[in-house]
Design brief:
heterodimer, A: 114 residues, mainly beta, six-stranded mixed sheet, five-stranded antiparallel sheet, globular, B: 114 residues, seven-stranded mixed sheet, four-stranded antiparallel sheet, 11 strands
Chain lengths: 114, 114
Amino acid sequence: DQQVKQNSPSLSVQEGRISILNCDYTNSMFDYFLWYKKYPAEGPTFLISISSIKDKNEDGRFTVFLNKSAKHLSLHIVPSQPGDSAVYFCAARGQETSGSRLTFGEGTQLTVNP
Amino acid sequence: KAGVTQTPRYLIKTRGQQVTLSCSPISGHRSVSWYQQTPGQGLQFLFEYFSETQRNKGNFPGRFSGRQFSNSRSEMNVSTLELGDSALYLCASSLQGVRYNEQFFGPGTRLTVL
């Protein structure tokens, strides 16, 4: 049972344009969501997060939107840069979970073309 | 401050063998989590240790085990290796396991089972 799903395995955009990565979840107990970026041969790096009491969080070029009724979140990158090319993982944490356990999606490979 | 380190970085084993992977968290971090990453599956949670105690466990068979030492360093062990255990094993550390705090990932150990 995949509780966090990223339905697009890959996304290709032009430099300077907007990249939109999507993530859907099924578990209504999730109350905190994170995005991680991963380059080959490196571990995932934290990008941005959002609590379920908010519907938007912004950090520089990165904005995460949360639609609780649709159980959907998205990551917007504006403007996209070639250095943003990486695999992006959406992750979620449940209210009932103590500690640091995260449930991850399958990842989306973003390619930003110069 | 040094990041999360994992050793070894690459490992090749044959079916039926056992393997031990090591993780040193960021100094001061007491929570260590382990994840398995396979193509198309995202990151699957294995277990979390906090103050030398296993706090959370994912849905993996008993062949997967772990422990944490008093200095917060952690090891995971996989016994009777199977071909399907070939994966990238990632370790993540965080401060005291308080909810909402960020996890920092190591570069991973790439395990290949032949």
